[in-house]
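Researcher: Next sequence.
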Amino acid sequence: MTGMLKCSIPPEALPELSDLKPELLRVDHVNMERNGKKVLENIDFSVRRGDFFAVTGPNGGGKTTLMRIILGLLKPTSGSVIFNQKRMRIGYLPQKSRVDSRFPISVREAVASGLLGVEGVDRSELQCRVAEMLRLVDLTEHAEKAFGALSGGQQQRVLLARAIISRPELLVLDEPLSYVDKRFEQRIYGIVKDLSATTTILLVSHEITTIAEMANRHIIIDRTLTECRSARHFARMDWA
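Model: Next structure:
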């Protein structure tokens, strides 16, 4: 495995501006082992309201595992994730490889499923929000198609719409640019930038250059955690 992403200036050179914001959640000394192998070791950091995290690291470094632990989808071997409010709207775009595209559901139904469990949304508002999301990801004409009949890039756009339809307070995006073409990649950057004004975001991506311009925090996950607090980042993207 090769690859490197490190700060261009020492971490202590810049103040941590996010310390001024209220804490939304804390990842408290999380460790994860699988088949006797350490996947994550002593991961400890806080997420503050309004933060935009760029999460990078090599393949197999534990980025997706960490996101799934934060979401409560995996239980760590030790440590915990502590949320500072009881109820929170959370949006999640998983890696497409974790989604069963054979599931018999239409595009419209897939997007609408992002509102399951959200209180105060009647049928009229649900229909309005679904229509809004389909326009946002340019899939209105595919609304009644089966999710599995779409291309990989179109499926990724459906999953993005599903993740943000609830207007989440916390949004976790795991490689949101996977499978999408360059034209829609730019659209995703715009969507994420707009969301960052009102939403706390954890975004896993190898495309750090553009993301870093929007993010206010950058963590590197390679079993352990390194937080880069420089204004600029040096990246060599030859991870494999």
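Model: Confidence is low (pLDDT under 50) at residues 1-15, 233-240. The two ends are 6 Å apart (CA to CA).
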